[in-house]
Amino acid sequence: MEIRLAQLDDKKAILSIIKNVVIDMSSQGINQWDQTYPNEEVVTEDILDREVYVASEDTVIKGVITLNEYQDEEYETIPWKYNGDKILVIHRLCVDPKFQGAGIATKLLNFAEQFGKENNYSAIRLDSFTENKGACRLYEKHGYEKRGFVTFRKGDFICFEKKL
């Protein structure tokens, strides 16, 4: 499994994974993502900003993660524990449903943490849809602590944080 910076050539595969994830979550009653978000414009911007990474094996992209410093304004209401100079934020972590359960999300989280340490970030933050119990369990299992809740277009999201 290789994790590398995404290229524009990867956009079609990334959008396909997102579409598959939307269908899979919807079948489980998780109404987190849709055709509005995340969309092609968001993915293209992530790639052009050099902020999206893909987990691939034998040229097949199996998972995606976006890493940057952008925090939605809703994050200002959260009582964060770590307020260092540099905070890394995880966005749009997803694994193609046909490859879920193989540890790819864990590899992407480990990559994010290593990336954060190498680039002098003090902590990682992210949010996860409250109805996406599997994702919430994944973050807690990896030492991310709940800090509070924010509300976006689709409902309530738990904000998590982990010291690096």
UniProtKB/TrEMBL annotation:
<dbReference type="InterPro" id="IPR000182">
    <property type="entry name" value="GNAT_dom"/>
</dbReference>
<keyword id="KW-0808">Transferase</keyword>
<dbReference type="GO" id="GO:0016747">
    <property type="term" value="F:acyltransferase activity, transferring groups other than amino-acyl groups"/>
</dbReference>
<keyword id="KW-0012">Acyltransferase</keyword>
<feature type="domain" description="N-acetyltransferase">
    <location>
        <begin position="1"/>
        <end position="164"/>
    </location>
</feature>
<dbReference type="InterPro" id="IPR051556">
    <property type="entry name" value="N-term/lysine_N-AcTrnsfr"/>
</dbReference>
<dbReference type="InterPro" id="IPR016181">
    <property type="entry name" value="Acyl_CoA_acyltransferase"/>
</dbReference>
<dbReference type="Pfam" id="PF00583">
    <property type="entry name" value="Acetyltransf_1"/>
</dbReference>
<protein>
    <recommendedName>
        <fullName>N-acetyltransferase domain-containing protein</fullName>
    </recommendedName>
</protein>
